[in-house]
Write a structure and sequence with these properties.
heterodimer; A: alpha+beta; Ubiquitin-like (UB roll); DNA polymerase, domain 1; 5-stranded mixed beta sheet; globular; B: 292 residues; Uridine Diphospho-n-acetylenolpyruvylglucosamine Reductase, domain 2; Enolase-like, domain 1; 3 domains; 5-stranded antiparallel beta sheet; 4-stranded antiparallel beta sheet; 12 helices; 14 strands
């Protein structure tokens, strides 16, 4: 069955036609052309397709598009404001917290949300919150350092 | 449960999102075994990708208010509705304080992003032998509540899980909630698991100890070692007997590693699993008895 769903993506209201068996990841990437949502394992293990669904990180390869009717989605494209990167994005650049960069959108998004909720996380808390995302280049150390250094900007708010 | 490459797309189905339990039950009654329930989706959607299941109708129960129930009442215990996620359980204070084994299992299950979607009811309905939800529930003597259009029944979790991906649920029925009895003051519980490279346990263990003078109540429940979670009844008896607790713990751990039927598979041999049973049992019980 084909039906229309409405959702807010990165602040914009969108109405899309989707089939019942279509996945959120495919609708975001192929219909809305939001390519910051990466597709890799397709079964919820790597976490690269992570998006914020109503403020919560979820893996969009395990969510049906019809399930998010009326919801708010944020992807990495929705983080910067007026062309300025968020502190976490700047910290990733400063710390070289990436090699190939394929996992970066997911890590940036999940750590941004982590710092909004907990502006002063311990290393353990960072590891726990991000353990669902895999970086095959093994840049975890730099990622954790980037998050720690960005945390001061989130504390001010 | 195979680990082959998944399909990228899902089989065709019609999606339903009932607003009441009655509506959901009517849909289930109408479509029978062609229908599958969708809550968090981390199991169902993954299984559909593998073509392990291909339902023609998917019934999303997240719009049903009564299934969101998460409530503790003194003397009665804890009720966990079918759409309550692991993340919600993790931040529920009562579970952190009173139901330690469940809390620790929830914290160790999968990863925190999956836990934002995954539900505990879904976890036990999948009945995969190596998941972390069932052992603590069985240790607490929890029951599932099952509803259909014409009846309501309650089944202990220990009996509800019949084997790998096999549960006591008829077409037309839905698990609405889990009921965990209240824990008497002084009782202690905990959960440990051993896993390498994946969140799936090679052995996991939930222990519940209530060591009052009049009545000793001990339950040791092991997962991932056999087709369904099992209790080490002989080891429990040892712990309930009189004697120096440290000696009893060692005897019980050895007994548990010997008395149970243990599988051998590609992840771990039977011998290794028996070794893990002994070590995990010893560590967890020591922590429960000596720790605060």
């Amino acid at each position: 069955m084909v039906r229309k769903i409405s959702l807010t993506v990165n602040g914009y209201r969108k109405t899309v036609e989707v089939k019942d068996n279509e996945l959120l990841i495919d609708v975001l990437r192929d219909k809305l052309k939001i390519k910051g949502v990466k597709a890799a394992c397709w079964r919820g293990e790597c976490g690269l397709c992570t998006v914020l669904l109503n403020g919560e990180p979820v893996k969009s390869c395990l969510v049906l598009a019809v399930e998010v009717d009326g919801s708010e989605i944020v992807t990495v494209e929705g983080l910067s404001r007026d062309g300025e990167l968020t502190p976490i994005q700047k910290a990733f650049i400063e710390h070289g917290a990436l090699q190939c960069g394929f996992c970066t959108p997911a890590f940036v998004l999940a750590s941004h949300q982590l710092l909004l909720e907990n502006p002063n996380p311990t290393e353990e808390e960072i590891k726990e919150k991000l353990s669902g995302i895999l970086c095959r280049c093994g840049t975890y150390y730099e990622i954790i350092e980037a998050i720690k250094s960005a945390s001061k900007f989130y504390q001010k708010k | 449960m195979s680990f082959g490459s998944p399909y990228f797309t899902l089989p065709d189905f019609t999606y339903h999102k009932p607003k009441t339990l009655r509506e959901a039950l009517e849909l289930l009654e109408k479509y029978g075994d062609e229908a599958k329930i969708l809550a968090g989706g981390v199991g169902l959607i993954a299984f559909m990708k593998e073509r392990l299941v291909s339902p023609s109708h998917v019934i999303d129960i997240k719009g049903i208010p009564e299934l969101k129930k998460l409530e503790y009442r003194k003397g009665e215990g804890l009720v966990i509705g079918a759409t309550v996620t692991f993340s919600e359980l993790e931040s529920y204070q009562v579970i952190r304080e009173k139901y330690r084994a469940l809390y620790q299992a929830v914290k160790l299950a999968s990863d925190s992003i999956i836990r934002n979607r995954a539900t505990l009811v879904g976890n036990i309905c999948e009945a995969i032998p190596w998941v972390d939800g069932p052992p603590p529930l069985i240790a607490y003597g929890a029951e599932v509540e099952i509803k259909s259009l014409d009846k309501v029944r309650r089944v202990p979790v220990a009996e509800f899980i019949k084997g790998p991906v096999e549960i006591d649920l008829e077409p037309g029925e839905i698990v609405t909630s889990i009921h965990i009895p209240d824990v008497p003051s002084g009782a202690r519980s905990g959960f440990v698991k051993f896993n390498v490279g994946s969140e799936f346990a090679l052995v996991n263990l939930a222990a519940y100890l209530s060591l009052n003078k009049e009545k000793k109540d001990v339950r040791l429940v092991y997962g991932a070692i056999s087709p369904k979670p099992v209790r080490a009844l002989e080891a429990e008896k040892i712990l309930s007997s009189e004697g120096d607790m440290r000696t009893l713990i060692i005897s019980a751990a050895v007994k548990a590693s010997e008395e149970l039927e243990v599988i051998s598979d590609v992840l771990a041999s039977e011998d290794f699993r028996r070794h893990l049973i002994k070590i995990l049992t010893m560590n967890l019980l020591t922590e429960l008895v000596e720790g605060g």
